[in-house]
Amino acid sequence: MSTLNNFWNALLNELQNGLFYFNGPLDLIVAIFDIAVTTFLIYFVLKLISETQAWQLLKGIVAVVIFVIIGGFLGLKTINYVLINFASVFAIALIIIFQPEMRRALETVGRKSSNIFSASGDRVSSESDVRQVVESIVVACAEMAKTKTGALIIIERETKLGDLIESGAVVIDADLTSTMLRQIFYVNSPMHDGAVIIRGGRIYATRVHVPLSESYHLKRELGTRHRAAIGASEIGDAISVVVSEERGTISISIHGRLYTLDDADSLRAILIRLLSTNNQDSSNLPNQLRKILRIDKTEKSAKAQLDTEKGDDTFDDIEELKMIEEHGSKHISGLEVTDKPHRRKLGIFSISLATALALWLFVRITTNPVVQKTFTVPIQTVGIENLYERQLDFYMGENSVRVSIKGRQEMLNSLQPKQIDASVNFNSINQAGTYNLETKVEIEGISSYAYTAFREPTHVSVIINQVGKTETTEDDKTGGTTFSTTATGSNEGNSEQAQNNQNEDNNK
């Protein structure tokens, strides 16, 4: 808490002093780039968390932190003590709580990196192959839904599911056909227990045991197969298709969300969109569902019109989809889907930008604070030539000045005394006398990004003497003129010496 207090005081002090935050144009560009990258990183993390159950937990943590900060400013010592002594415990707890989200974030980064730097791997290579795979799955699911045959099909994409396959699964690596899928999930088949993994457009493994999802948002009526489907979709970017043996419905699960569809046509439209080689990003599935099902509505206009007149619960009406997402329905379970994605994104971006700016200010002020450094530099004289032209000489009691400069620590550490000019100006002096001249300080190269906190002395006392007058001697018989430039003090000394010599001659 003391660190936050120091940061706040330092920030207010800099704002009051009007000190520039940047050491130059390059520093400004680097700062903008730094803030932009930090904003993108925070936005990526918040957007990922906002699509999970950890979003509400994060809101609670932020509320507690804000309360603790306010309590610290108000002098609530108990809260401050608890925060300081249990900060490490809280950090470890956050890592444990957000472990699934952190893993998913790293997997997302890895998938996007592999899309850039690696080949397609086991992906389905062409659109025709994608449609063939989708058609086999859709036909099989439609037939099994009619007969209420339970099935769980997991479509592997970028994230490999080798850990699931190693735990007692049967690897068959067979061609993917609707007939093969129906035979596998036939009730009396020895391989119907468990899930089927589709890899590279082929049936790679059967009897795969999938860990159940532990999400507390799931409806109680969901069975083991549906929980397993959600659990599989939480592992990377896998897509789970599940057929209920109790209700005969078809559902799809991705990124920990379960969507129950009304018919196989909706499943076909969604799978084609998600598995298309031109669209590998399924992180924004709710918005994609709207677009997919809107297109599907035009293709099935006659049937959709009939279903709408009957009041059937379908996804064909977009406004109905929004109401379902707001109030809950049998069509969507799992996490809530927002009906205003653009406003939500704008809100997350605003929070990310504000957080990035606050972090940038905190890091900049704490790691590169405004400090004060003192230098001793010699005093330079300006206009001394004009002084000599007027046959004047000077005596200055101070030859150096102590200058204290305020600026960024990194900048002052690189500042050399030779970059600091301290001077007094003689241009305004026309006659002998005692003057009190101001010492002026200039910092070479960084005058706009630092300022002089104080200088000592601020004024220097200068004594100006008349050098002497012009005298004509008769030694030069050519008629020339000789100028004697003897200081006034020296003339007085010479007169005294001449008087002493005269006294010695009289004594003799």
From TrEMBL:
One of its GO terms (biological process) is cAMP biosynthetic process. This is Diadenylate cyclase. Probably a homodimer. It catalyses: 2 ATP = 3',3'-c-di-AMP + 2 diphosphate. It comes from the Bacteria. Catalyzes the condensation of 2 ATP molecules into cyclic di-AMP (c-di-AMP), a second messenger used to regulate differing processes in different bacteria. The gene is dacA. The chain crosses the membrane at residues 20-45, 57-75, 81-98, 346-363. Keywords: ATP-binding, Cell membrane, Membrane, Nucleotide-binding, Nucleotidyltransferase, Transferase, Transmembrane, Transmembrane helix. Its EC number is 2.7.7.85. It comes from Fastidiosipila sanguinis.
